[in-house]
Amino acid sequence: MSTATITPNSSQLSTGRDGFRHLLRAEWTKFRTVRGWVIGMAVSGLVTVLFGLLAASATHSSCDAPPGQTCGSGPIGPAGQPVTDTFYFVHQTLTGDGSITARVTALSGIITYPQSNPDAIVPGVEPWTKAGIIVKDNTNQGSPYAAVMVTGGHGVRMQYNYAHDTAGGPGLVAAASPRWLRLTRTGDTLTGYESTDGRRWTTVGTARLTGLATTVQTGLFVTSPGDVQVQQGLGSGAARHHTQATAVFDQVSLHGQAAGRWSGDGVGGANGTDLERDHPAGMTRSGGTFTVTGSGDIAPVDDPGRDIERALIGVFAGLIAMIVVATLFVTAEYRRGMIRTTLAASPHRGQVLAAKAVVIGSVTFVAGLLATAVTVPLSERVLRANGAHFFPVATLTELRVIAGTAALLAAAAVLALAVGASTRRSAAVVTAVIVAVILPYFLAVTSAVPTAAAEWLLRITPAAAFAIQQSVPPYPQVSGAYTPSNGYFPLAPWAGFAVLCGYTALALGVAALRLRRRDA
């Protein structure tokens, strides 16, 4: 990229009260008058947009989604997020306020072809198997609900509207240690209780389901998610094995304005897998005892298409261009000897470095923000035109991904500037910063290293900042493969970004120290 000779005058670089403001103005003038740098920033934004649109253009889908669903996303929950909503439901109609009580006396299950015995269907209960009582707006997938349940390994829980989970008492259910459950409705408020003897009750949690229908479905349910096994070696991945659970209920009582007889339905379908053809889901009743078998899950989707992240694939190409521009913003002055003029006019060398960091960080942030803010909605339109759909996320999440990606680009650019001020070698700096910021990310997400090593790379290297792009959080109550290769980071979005900021601040400190101690 070409450079131009800009000679700042003493009024621009005065060190009086407005000295730093004049430094900012001088550094901005330098940047905008060097055509190569301006073009480099424009190119970085352009490739970010173009690569994102190419990724969207390459995605095609053709399906006839049921009402309330989008192609590839499944049912949509009350908060607008894709959810899994598949279970066996033994239910009656309840109008207005009321309560349901039941005792769970047994919970068993089977797991297909686990890693320990890949040729067999073996007895076993997946830890997030759920069996309990539920109040649900209707039997449609994605409708509002609240439930209190026993699980295969996490004790009693109260869950509602898919994403919300509250822990109750620990322990497993057995004939010698049954668990009583109760769920009451008062208006829009549902409260879950548990008991070991049916006399002394403990509150598990409370949920408010705004807009819950006056007439709802309530009853017993059983569901069992896939058993996820994460492989830790090179080329690590995850396998999900089908499971099924059976629970035994008795002492079932329903209070309030109930109507109809107990009936069983497979919400989301039942008996559609090879396992269920030999081990069908359903309900059997003997007097007051219900034996219910089911599989599936009631939870947020844990393995989405991650369309926002896919739309921002061009960020990597844009980041490389921005690193090059940020490096040349300081090393070009050293190469041409202009740094002597700059430092002679401003004896406060740390302020000169700070002014350069503010200018290159601001320019990069604005360019990145424009690029990402254009890419995401345009990619969504392209996907819809191709018959596909954006994986829906909350508005605040989308804003965080867009603005956070721009902040990531800005921090990486300032890092490159700081390393360039310390070493003064353009090619070495560009290579080093790319290796530090981008290479660990690709090693982690492509399973080029074991999962444990990938998680450490995304904790301790600047690549941790890419966590800012994670649009779907890991849910502790979901049996999921929360690994880098599946798009999940070991640090929270802003915590990961803070790691990059820490490296950048350290590099700026080292650069300021070296700038003071050596000649230009």
Chain-wise SSE layout:
Elements: H1 19-33, H2 35-57, E1 69-70, E2 74-75, E3 83-112, E4 121-123, E5 130-136, E6 145-151, E7 156-160, E8 164-167, E9 179-186, E10 189-195, E11 202-208, E12 215-223, E13 227-230, E14 238-241, E15 243-267, H3 274-278, E16 282-286, E17 289-294, E18 297-300, H4 307-311, H5 315-336, H6 338-345, H7 349-385, H8 395-423, H9 426-437, H10 439-445, H11 451-460, H12 493-517
Antiparallel strand pairs: 1-2, 3-4, 3-9, 3-12, 3-15, 3-18, 5-6, 5-12, 6-7, 7-8, 9-10, 10-11, 13-14, 15-17, 16-17
Helix pairs in contact: 1-7, 2-5, 2-7, 5-7, 5-8, 5-9, 7-8, 7-12, 8-9, 8-12, 10-11
- Could you say which structural class the secondary elements and strand pairing correspond to? alpha+beta
Count the DSSP helices.
Answer: 12
- Count every beta strand, where a strand is a DSSP E run of 2 or more residues: 18
Main sheet overview:
14 strands, antiparallel
* Average pLDDT, all residues: 87
Query: Could you name the ranges where pLDDT drops below 50 across 5 or more consecutive residues?
Result: 1-17
Spatial extent as radius of gyration: 29 Å
Reading the helices and strands in chain order gives HHEEEEEEEEEEEEEEEHEEEHHHHHHHHH
Name the shape in a single word: elongated
